[in-house]
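User: Okay, second chain of the day. Same drill as before: sequence in, structure tokens out.
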Amino acid sequence: MDGLSGAASIIAVIDISAKIFELCQKYVSAVKEARKDIQRLRDGVTSLQDVMTDVRDLAEDSSLSRRSVFSRLNQHNGPVQQCERDLRRLVAQLEVGDGENKMRQFGLRALKWPFSSKDIDQRLQVINDHKATFTLALTSDHFALTRTIKDDIARLGDGLADMQTEQRTLAMGEKQQKIRHWLSSPDPSSNHNVACKARQATTGEWFLKSDEFEEWKMTSRSFLWLYGIPGCGKSILCSTVIETVKSQYKSNLTVAIAYFYFDFNDTEKQRHDKFTRSIIEQLAWQSTKALACLESLFSHSQDGKQQPKQDALELTLQQMLGEFEETFIILDALDECKEREELLILLEKLNSWETEKLHVLITSRRERDIEEALESLVTSEICLQSALVNNDIRTHISERLQNDSKLRKWPANVRGEIERTLMDGAQGMFRWVVCQLELLRKCLKVDALRKALKSLPKTLDETYARILDNIDEGYSQDTFRILQWLVYSARPLSIEEVAEVVAIDIEQSRFDPENRLREPRDLLTICSSLVTTAAVTVKDYDGVSNETTELRLAHFSVKEYLISDRIRKGVAFQYDIQSRAEEEIAQTCLSYLLHFQKGVLTLGNLSTFPLAQYAAEYWCCHFRAIKDSDQASKLSMQLFRGDAFRNWIRLCNPDYPWRGTNMKRDITSIASPLYYASLEGLFEPVSLLLSKGANVNAQGGYYGNAIQAASIRGHEAIIALLLEKGADINAQSESYSNTLEAASAQGHEAIVALLLEKGADVNAEGGNHGNAIQAASIGGHEAIVALLLEKGADINTQSGYYGNALQAASAQGHETIISLLLEKGAGINTQSGAYSNALQAASAGGHEAIVALLLEKGADVNAQGGYYGNALQAASVGGHEAIVALLLEKGADVNAQGGYYGNALQAASVGGHEAIVALLLEKGARAD
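Assistant: Same drill. Structure tokens below.
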């Protein structure tokens, strides 16, 4: 880049800084509550502007050394370009908050400061980082500058798509961070990275050159199914497709690409709703309009206080697909989804939405239910048979023979023998080849190698049986337990966590640190090619990302073999891990936690006990899966006393599992053992604790008492036992007020019926939901609402956030409950609650059919009160144009004053809803 064009890029940064200063000036006089933050941002860009003026002089300096410094600053994706991109993004965000561009045509300005103080802290940090780099350049410290720039470019990433993702993450406001945490979608990139690592440069080339692939990309509403036998390389091929599509469309921002790997190793990646959430999240960060769809779902879920139902997720996905010109969705290993029937129904829906430019590709085994469901959906299908994948397998073998330190030692003729023998036996199975190569790596002499080649197992089952049979007897018990944990653990495990398992004596129920492996990676040696590792990024409860190495079963076929009846009939019968798996894992967790009975665990040494977090969080999960175990019950009772109990709650409080570990948690904030046993649904420990004299009505914990805790979680048998032992059925607490309200809110119909039968007060008031009928109405539990009414619930009682049941149901969009409540005499214009009346609640939520129903039944279209003042303002700020039109048609006062925004026109202006502004003006709204 010459000096003139280089200087121009610096001038662009200076001009953008000036633009930010100018935009800040607009806000100062109009947004009083944010003046300090505005001043901070203004000072930050002014300071950067001063430094950039000096850098401009550097660009115009003709000396060789100064030109050298500037060329580094101005290189592709270097500091100047990064700074310009960050500042342009900041301008765009300020202009969105300003709203002037959208509303100028109406003579309106909707001025709203778009940042929180935390947002400003983040943006000032970015600005200061840029300033530090440019200041360093001015000192001509060439070494330090070069290192800084290299670090910056490395962080930026190689591709445009990755760079955009990183910038979006940096720019993500506090609300978006909350949404991401609330959505809780699994990250498929860890699977993708593993698959990419396993493929060669030419893997899948045959498919990328095929007519079917080209047709899939170019044809509207295309659906391609790739199927094949276990171990034929479907996931690796899938990763090739993903990388190819990403590369081809990376510069086209109107094209969205999303993918998902179903994973037998990870329970979070075996559910169809998690697939839906992951696709939604990926699409959201590729378009501001798609992100707005997700933000709308978040706001309709009480700003994250509730989790969305599957139909709401699907509606959001459908809306998002409409925001792109083209969308590619790539799904691997459909057969590894535990909720396969639900997933296949979802794929049918996806196809029925008639999104013209949607391209779906899935991989799976060919199984009858999948084939039957996909028959009407697929536009093309390919069987990954030997003839198609043999070249990929041959490439893999050749690469291993050339690069593996133990295989490349053999002379060319021997390597040729290995390749020919493996190709003859592969039968299209990548996985089979991988296992045989691991076996051959152990051969030290050529005669041993040739003997192994002559006796290779013919199938994967035979291969796994031989691997297990060949494990050293001294490590067979360790191998058994490692495989047991990898199959039945509640989440993926780090290699350090699994290494702790072998140091626990299950017979003695004792953890002995001296029995630890000296090196966790020795697990790979013990278990041979049955396991593998994967480097992944996991987020802790605070959202902080950490790198870790997971130990996994090497392939889905390994898990299938281990849990099949086939293993019991072969030479590896002693590795039948099924019969007592949950019991032994529960006992292992409890034994580990009991090691901390005498105060051994502290904040300072927590990191030296890697399994502590898992044991604390999941022992109850494994315990509940046990039908009967005296030893597990005995260990649980030992845990419910002394230091071990307190350490368990400090490691993972069942009331607040999302808060993570707090080893400084105050003892007085810890509830009774009976409370936590009831909350976690541990029937046998509850029974034993009660038999030993536990106070059934002891107060404590987030839900107040044991019976309410059990009610929230739906543990009916425990509730019956607690009532039998004298639990107060109407005991009050802060969160849900009483047990009946708690069960009603969570939709536990059988428990509601039991409580009413045992004398629960149907009209007891208190808590955020006010009473049981309002709680059931919020949750959309129609049968419970009907049952409560039948048992005498007061339909118009006033309390709680929404004031009454009708407003609650209207806010959440539960039309059938609204009809039921109106039929039973609910007051349609009753004033109370956050929205003052049902019509305003429905309008705010964007529920058009409910608004129409309420108006038809006599709702006052101009009723005043509540947060938004009236229904028209509520609909206007939310951007619900059809509801605005309907309200105006029914006589809504277009200039009614009141509420947070003053009137409907100002509300629509702040929201940036141009069509609504135009409609309101057309209907006589005053712009003064």
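Residues 140-147, 153-172 have pLDDT under 50 and may be disordered.

User: Thanks, on to the next one.
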